[in-house]
Amino acid sequence: MGTLLLLSVATLCFASAQHQGLIDYLEQRLVAIEGRISVWYEQSNRYASELREFKQQMIGLTENLEEGHEALHSDVEGVVTRVERVERELDYMETQNLAPPCVDMDRNLIEQEITTLKEINMAKYEKLSDCSDMISSFKAMKIVKKAGGPKGVWLKDTASGSGKVYVFNGTSGDVLYEFGTMRDLAASAGLSRGRPIKLPFPWSGMGHTVYKGYAYYVVEGMTFELIKYDLQNGSVADSAVFPADDQVRPVEPGDMTHILN
Ligand SMILES: *[C@@H]1O[C@H](CO)[C@@H](O)[C@H](O)[C@H]1NC(C)=O
Ligand SMILES: *[C@@H]1O[C@H](CO)[C@@H](O)[C@H](O)[C@H]1NC(C)=O
């Protein structure tokens, strides 16, 4: 009985020792777990605070964005109201003036006109100062008809309006040529197309004319004689003789009137 008790006490002692070891082990584990937990706790706290900071930043940014958006919105609204006002003013001006005001275009037109004026003035100045231009004007002169000799005259009967052209070839001769029109003279090879009119007396000099169907010309010989020749029926209608001494005296109107009429 005593032995059994001793044994049981020993067993009990052993068991309690075993139990103590387990408790120590468990305590160690618990401390380790507590340490880890505290580390996690710290970490999660840090994350949480970082997340909070991040949230705060995001909220600030969002607020800034919203403010910017609102500012933009109000700016757009201001622009829209201004555009509407301009449109209203334009409408009003259009009702006031039928032609819409185009100040810029007018300025362009004025500038164009000024430039054109300047160019015209420049061209005028160049024309005045440029000799080559004058020479080119001479170049532009065309010889449309050449007939007969270098001297002589062609003339029209301006009083009759017949359009006939008369050619006195040279400074002397007794045949003058009559052309129906200026076109005939231009188309004629030389004076071939002209109607030759043989004069009863040769003319001399250049003092002749054709007037109302009569040729007036000077016959020079011993006397200074003026002939009025009827071109229609080929007869001397009248004549006037002046003394040779009077040649130097210009023929006065009075001398001519008796023969012209
Ligand atoms: C015209 O006169 C020139 C000389 O002056 C002469 O050579 C020429 O043959 C004349 N022409 C005619 C058609 O009479
Ligand atoms: C020529 O005609 C005029 C009138 O035109 C006439 O007086 C004159 O007698 C005429 N001469 C000849 C020669 O036919």
Automatic annotation (TrEMBL):
Chief location category: secreted
The Olfactomedin-like domain is annotated at 130-261
Where in or outside the cell it occurs: the entry states: Secreted
GO BP of this protein:
signal transduction
* Swiss-Prot/TrEMBL keywords: Coiled coil, Developmental protein, Disulfide bond, Glycoprotein, Secreted, Signal
Q: Which residues form the signal peptide?
A: 1-17
Q: Which family does it belong to?
A: Belongs to the OLFML3 family.
> What is the protein's name according to its record?
Olfactomedin-like domain-containing protein
Species this chain originates from: Synaphobranchus kaupii (Kaup's arrowtooth eel)
